[in-house]
DNA sequence: AATGAATGAGGCTTCATTCAT
DNA sequence: GATGAATGAAGCCTCATTCAT
């Protein structure tokens, strides 16, 4: 059933690109990349399907823009907060809380980034941006090992353990299996430090 | 009216259901549920696409069968190895190594189960089977807390941290970012115990 | 889901061809030729799908056998009962009641023949067998016109009117819109005679 | 991932919905509902197969729209022409000629409606619209019986006989077995009246 | 710039038919 | 002769993408 109704410019609305990215984020998290249709994104963004192609070349370009954008956002945030000269124990604490703050403020974006890690539709540049935080955390741990405050295991292993623990906690939280208050978050942070700390 | 072309029964070949499940597992891990086409599975299994429908009612029924099957396999394996009367420290170690053994022996199955957690195409029975191992690990931790050997934080939180750390480690391993030898595995196990252990 | 269960000859059962024809008749009437799948027929006949191909070359061969078989049955029945020397009024009455008797005794077969008239999957021989009764009825009406007892309109037109009225009545009956008792049938017969009778 | 092949909007062409309905009508009459493939309809309508789904939710929705549309058209036409105050004999004649006029002007639509009566793919609303003309004709006959000009048989039976005769005549005409000129049509009308008229 | 009808490849699924057992 | 698993073409429908308005 078609309506010959209104075409052309609709009532002014800025941020079109932004609303497309938001809608796409929500859809991709909910149903995955291949499970999301462009018209679904358009509907959620309250625009026409064709409009998406004024801002992004393709569906793939859209996921990649989303992925890169959020990955950079979180990296910048963590780097900005990082206390350069502070003791490792303090650096660890700050990173942890910064990550929690991000994952709490932008749960969908965080879920998106975690779920879409290494997906086949991510292009080279996206994958490149991918490693920054983990590289950074690895470096921090490696420095701490030199000081002898962290276990002398492979620093990459320790980093993945802590990162995994963090993601596991957040995922359980999104999925409603876990309440998180300040005490729990701080307790978890301490537990993760204990995991890597030299005894 | 169909073409009179040659179709029909080809030379015998056993294990068809098994080879479908194997092929589907590999495809789903590689490209996700929606990213995998039935003909791709068929090709990998070296059968005709239609044959899949003799064994499974639909693509959804296939993922669910896969999910349930592997989830049960791993649960049974962990439960069978669990040392009932042993000290918690020992129980923890056994579970850890059992999980590693499974994830190493069946990396694709393990990846599949982790990636497809809580996906929208999983049906009720599949989701029901989902909680068994985590419930079990939670109970173990809760018992240890009574003994005072584990931190007095929310046992669910501790469980998710350890589980997350484990998954993080295994994922880094599949993705080639991490070498895992016996020492690394044992070191990681100790680190995870340190995470939850009372100081 | 497959079972390696019983193959080969099942408990003796004669009339396999007959039960296939019966099942096919019911299915074709209910859902049409293209709407009926061979496995559905097999299930209704309580045999394996492949078995049908021992008796019929194809689905088309099956409909055609069915069509020809019933068409001949009804024709033979009508011809057998036809009172050669009797007055036309009597001949008309006999034919009418013979048709009603058949349509009542074999409602599915009658419905099948009416619904599948001139379908594209009927082959030459089937269509050839198609005309016999109508030709016969036409001849009867033409003779009656010579006697002056029937209207001097195109005999084919009169024949189609009567035949159409008969089919309309029977169809309304199968479809539950019409009760038919002996009085109704006799009344309808008289009405049809009045339709063609010279005034 | 889809091919980057050229797709998208082709040069304008109006009346798409109408041409889909026309093409579908022709196909359904020729090969039946299950015997008609959506691509066949699309080809006949000279549009892409997918376009049909912009206008109709499914193949079933398409048949139902077709059925309802034509059924209403014919009913409106008959009702509009019906001479309310005239004698029954005249009303009968008008209805008859109106039906013939419709069946002659729109032979495919008429064939479609007759062939698809009570098919399993017709939905509730379609079946509801189905009875109007027959109910109307029945009422007319019932009134005539009160006047004593029509036989005192079940009015539904008489209606079905006349309707059946009419359909039989038209069908023979479409199928090329019968020439119909004004005299034949008028003669048939008189014959049908004679069928139901009290003697 | 925005729209959304149109396109047509491709996805899931069905089913007529074959053939090893 | 009977079986039913296997085949693969074809059916219905979806959806990424284009482009006239």
Please, could you describe this protein's structure?
Four copies of one chain form a homotetramer. With 199 residues, chain A is mainly α. Chain A has two domains: 10-56, Arc Repressor Mutant, subunit A (Orthogonal Bundle), CATH 1.10.10.60; 60-196, Tetracycline Repressor, domain 2. Helices cover 69% and strands 0% of the residues of chain A. Chain A has ten helices and no strands. Chain A has helices spanning 16-31, 38-45, 49-55, 59-81, 88-105, 107-115, 124-129, 132-147, 155-174, 182-196. In chain A, helix 4 (59-81) packs antiparallel against helix 5 (88-105), helix 8 (132-147) packs across helix 9 (155-174) and helix 9 (155-174) packs antiparallel against helix 10 (182-196). Residues 1-12 of chain A have low confidence and may be disordered. At the A-D interface, loops of A face loops of D. Chain B binds a DNA duplex (21 and 21 nucleotides) through residues 1-13, 16, 37-39, 47-54, 58-59.
């Amino acid at each position: 059933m078609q309506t010959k109704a209104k075409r052309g410019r609709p009532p002014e609305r800025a941020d079109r690109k932004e609303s497309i990215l938001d809608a796409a984020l929500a859809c991709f998290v909910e149903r995955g990349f291949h499970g999301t249709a462009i018209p679904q994104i358009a509907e959620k963004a309250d625009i026409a399907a064709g409009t998406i192609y004024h801002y992004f070349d393709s569906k793939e370009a859209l996921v990649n823009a989303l992925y890169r954008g959020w990955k950079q956002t979180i990296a910048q945030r963590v780097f900005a907060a990082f206390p350069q000269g502070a003791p490792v124990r303090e650096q660890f604490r700050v990173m942890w809380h910064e990550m929690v703050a991000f994952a709490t403020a932008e749960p969908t974006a965080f879920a998106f980034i975690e779920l879409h890690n290494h997906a086949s539709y991510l292009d080279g540049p996206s994958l490149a941006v991918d490693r920054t935080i983990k590289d950074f955390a690895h470096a921090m741990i490696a420095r701490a090992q030199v000081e002898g405050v962290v276990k002398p295991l492979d620093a990459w292993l320790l980093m993945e353990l802590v990162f995994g623990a963090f993601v596991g906690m957040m995922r359980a939280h999104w999925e409603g299996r876990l309440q998180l208050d300040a005490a729990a978050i701080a307790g978890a942070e301490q537990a993760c430090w204990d995991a890597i700390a030299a005894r």
